[in-house]
Amino acid sequence: MASKLLVFFLGITLLDLTGASRTNLCCSSKNVFSEDFWSIPSERCFKCSERTKTPACQNGDLYPGCSRNALLDFNPVVDMTCLNNMETSTSRLVGTFTDLVAKVVERWRRSRLRSKVSSQCQRDLGNFVEGLLNLEEWAVHMADSYGRPGPGLTRGQKTFVGDYGQCRDTDHTLSTGRSLLGQFCTLTTKTHLMSHAPQLARLFYLLDTVDVHVCVPNSCSDDDVITVFSDIIASFGGELLGAACVREKNPSADPFYRLAVFVLSVLLLSCLAGTVLDLVSEVNSKTCGSDTRAIALDKEDDVNNNRTTGQVPNKDEIRSFKEKLARVLLCFSLPQNMREIFSTSHADARDDVPCIHGVRVLSTLWLAILHSWTQYRHYGNLLGNPEDVHKLYKVWWFFTFFCLPFGVDTFLILSGFLAVSSFLRHFQRKNGVGSTKILLTYLSHRLWRLGPPLAMMLLVFYGVVPYLCIGPFDLSSEDQDTCRPRIWTTLFFVNNIFLNMSDYRCALWTWTLALDIQYHLLFGLLVLLPWALGKGKTGIIVCRAFIALHIMYILSLNKRDISSAEMMTDPEERMKIQLEMYFGPWAKTAPFVVGLLLGYTLYRRRQQYILKPMTVCLGWLSSSCACLSVIGVNYYNLKDLYDQRRFNLTDGQASLLEALNRPLWAFGVAWIIFACTVGYGGAVNRLLSWRGWVPLSRLSYSVYLWHNVVHTVISYNRWETFILSPWTAIETFFSSTIIAFGVAILFTLLVEWPTLALRRLFCLNNNKGA
Questions:
Q1: Contact criterion met (CB below 8 Å) for 341 and 749
Q2: How far is CA 512 from each of CA 144, 509, 645, rounded to the nearest angstrom?
Q3: Is it the case that residue 514 has pLDDT exceeding 90?
Q4: 85 — phi, psi (to 5°)?
Q5: Which residues contact 499 (CB under 8 A, 6 or more apart)?
Q6: What one-character DSSP code corresponds to residue 217?
Q7: In this prediction, what percent of the chain has a pLDDT beyond 90?
Q8: Would you say 370 and 398 are in contact if contact means Cβ atoms under 8 Å apart?
Q9: Contacts of 696 by beta carbon, 8 Å cutoff, 6+ apart
Q10: Alpha-carbon distance 329 to 339, whole Å?
Q11: Pairing relationship of beta strands 179-190 and 209-217 according to DSSP bridges
Q12: For position 207, what pLDDT does the model report?
């Protein structure tokens, strides 16, 4: 009886797919499906349904003698008439279902494509169909795992979701002793619905291609699946574009995987050796009075600033190979690195700007919460309601999470601000001797700061992550083929210039690092070096010129109709516009230049600013108005995008908004940093300078690198589509960000902090050698 009930509900779904009515239980299988198996049910069959509807369903009865309450309560003491009628109706539908399966088999036997399927796959499919006709439980469960249309089609639900776990649990022992295992596959089909009902063009545009989940024996290859289902789908008027089955992955032949495992093994062994050496040294220092760790670690060096600027500590020269090896290994010491990372103290109060830590952490979290759901839009059909995305623009409190460009702009402001103080201090220590060499040394330190953690992330992302993902929505194999040939654009920091549509899943979030390096190269030569040589006005003129050029460039894009909804619907047009207005180095100069001007202003006379109360009030009022107005105008522009399919601003207004919003936002953030630094920050300064931000700030770079890797692993291992809403986005953000912080701690200890210590050690050796 359980198998029959399961087939009953499965048969209802199949009848829906073929156009039969659920209440059409009086029609025989021959009437439900006329002589042409794939035709619409005959008119007589529908009349039969209408004729029996009144006596069968009156007074709320679903079956004669079965009240609705009786069925809902499923009381064991039910009238025997009700049970008999339920059994009769179920048996009729089971018969219809088995007729359906039999006709599918008969059509397949007559197909010319049958000979193209492997013999083992044919035998296993025959065993599956035989078990289904005999209502064997394993076969019924296997058929029940097939995907079928569900709710949300008009919201862009383009995946007929099946039960991945139920299919993979299929394990039936055949009479030959061999096991028949279930294999979950995704059929990508083109529906050709547009020709049937042009008045539903918008709906059919969404459903132009759909993914259907099916379960087949594991002996069938992708080509076998395509051959089996192409004729069936064609009979429904569709076209099978391709099939992809979920299989276990073997990483043994992958050179990326081997390299990743090798590098991780070396790093883990180095951390183990450094930790043991550090602990032994600590014991020796307590018993013998000598501190071996002092040979390798400079306790007075600033963890956040001096490591990144290449300050050379004054230590005795290393003579023996053992001492050199010990110093290298101690750079990987977990106890020492953990103490430095999780310390809440500011190492050097003269150079450190406490409010920077709060701004950096909050900006990182801002980017993470937006990435936690925007990535679903690039993961195939994983997003179950893409039509609802634009509705979220109307939720005003959630709209602030959409303002991703301003989070990136804040990072650029911080980068420009810190570049000034770092370079000028580095120039002072060298007494200005060999200015070009000093600039090249500074840029090499910047590359060393960003490069090793980025390379490690890419190695794990392309070498290990694909083997951590398995499921119906796993696209990691496609990512390997598409992204690995383009990894050079990320390693050479040019991936924001050489863009194409496939790059959305190729660690595209690292484009901001490319922007940072490009700006350091450009403005290091045009601005930082003149400032270091005492030509302050020259650098200021260059900065003002670049801000003016930024505004003029964005205004010139008015002719490209940047407010058109075509930007939202045409992927190629959207990529072109985003390259011009978002990803390109020419589109983000204003925030970085504002950061440079802020850093130079504070570096010259930090302690000499005495402002009048009115000036302070005007500064805070202007800053607040600038930031809030930018967010408010963007909200007005996008809030009706879903209903009206257009932006609210005209082309000229949109161009003006794009031209001014970044300089205005940069001004607002720059005032906050300036006021907090010179003593006019008040409660804002106390919040942003909270000592608890300090360890999180040290982890922010790794969190930024790894948060999308974590999100990718979570997404590719999903079994069902993701339904986006404000609260599911927040839930995803918290879960993925907490994991991202854990991963960031691991790789900060393995890669980032040891490489900074090694750079300091190499600078010491080079200085002594000179």
A1: yes
A2: 47, 7, 30
A3: yes
A4: -65, -40
A5: 575, 579, 583
A6: E
A7: 27
A8: no
A9: 357, 361, 741
A10: 17
A11: antiparallel
A12: 72
